[in-house]
Amino acid sequence: MAETIFSQAQNRPLLGSYQRTPFTVTALGVGLVVTLQTPSATIVDEEGFESLADTSPVGSLSPSSALQARFQALVTQWKNNTLRVSSDLGEALMDWPYQQIIGLGPRAIPLILDELRREPNHWGWALQSITGENPVPEEAAGDLRAIAQAWLQWGRDQHLIG
Amino acid sequence: MTLRAGLLAIFPGLVPTECEQTSSRDVSYNCIGFAAEPERLRWWQPIWIPSTYWPTEVPRVASVAAYEQAFATRGYARCASELLEVGVEKIALFVNGHGVPTHAARQLPDGSWTSKLGFEEDIRHDLRQLEGAAYGTVTLFMARARIAPL
């Protein structure tokens, strides 16, 4: 059953949908804090409300082409912004494009996992922020390749990637 | 490999003829991990993010004292200077004007230094040529016995 989630800021329905999954998803965005626990619901950040309107059938986590394009643009922007000599990871994760990727919510999960499969990077924080999960064993701390493997295994266990 | 041009704008003290790029860009480890534990490259930082490593017995504080403790877990002890000593491996910790550690470099057997530059590449350089607005100044030296290559 689908549930419509309303923006706290403007009391309007948010668009999109996500598939029933066994985990609880918490999404944080600008002016928006929503916890999704129902089998099917919708979430799109207010920033991309119009451009990311998703008309795919409820019950699918397949990202729309608009979402994929938006995601790739944000990834490129973030990577360009992290062409830096500072070792402060916190600063890089607070970078606006990275925060917007988190704001894309559950529909970005398969895209982030695909990105992780291509190249280990600091995507664990985004995945943890969106899902509330942390499948990374303590001994893998700081080891991006091991962290990527842990998240990819999590994605396979959740049937989000093949 | 020669230095890319952009680095000279960030580190105006670098003398291109005395430095070289020694790796390609790699976001999976940072300068602290590269200095402390080159045999297992990780991202060392005292913040609560799973993609960072910090020795469990050391406070997660961005202070010189905490960084000194972190390096001590890998056998380093405070020493007086950057001077090359046979059989000794040294590291240097850079600190900004607020007393916050910003960077670490490791001495090579020939007396030159090697650094991982944030999310970017590794370089070989003269230690003091990295001092300036980006990393601040060197304030701590530590040393341990150099492990002979097999």
Write the layout of secondary structure elements.
The complex is a heterodimer of chains A (162) and B (150).
Chain A: E1 2-3, E2 25-29, E3 32-36, E4 40-41, H1 65-81, H2 89-93, H3 96-103, H4 109-118, H5 124-131, H6 144-157
Helix pairs in contact in A: 1-3, 3-5, 4-6
Chain B: H1 5-10, E1 20-21, H2 31-36, H3 64-72, E2 77-79, E3 88-95, E4 101-107, E5 113-116, E6 122-125, E7 137-145
Antiparallel strand pairs in B: 1-6, 2-7, 3-4, 3-7, 4-5, 5-6
Describe this entry's structure for a reader.
The complex is a heterodimer of chains A (162) and B (150). Chain A has 162 residues and is mainly alpha-helical. Chain A has six helices and four strands. The two termini of chain A are 25 Å apart. Chain B starts with a helix and ends in a 5-residue tail after the last strand. The model of chain B has no long low-confidence stretch (mean pLDDT 95). In chain B, strand 5 and strand 6 form a beta hairpin. Chain B is an alpha+beta fold. Chain B has a seven-stranded antiparallel beta sheet with strand order 1-6-5-4-3-7-2. The interface between A and B is medium-sized, with 26 and 31 residues.
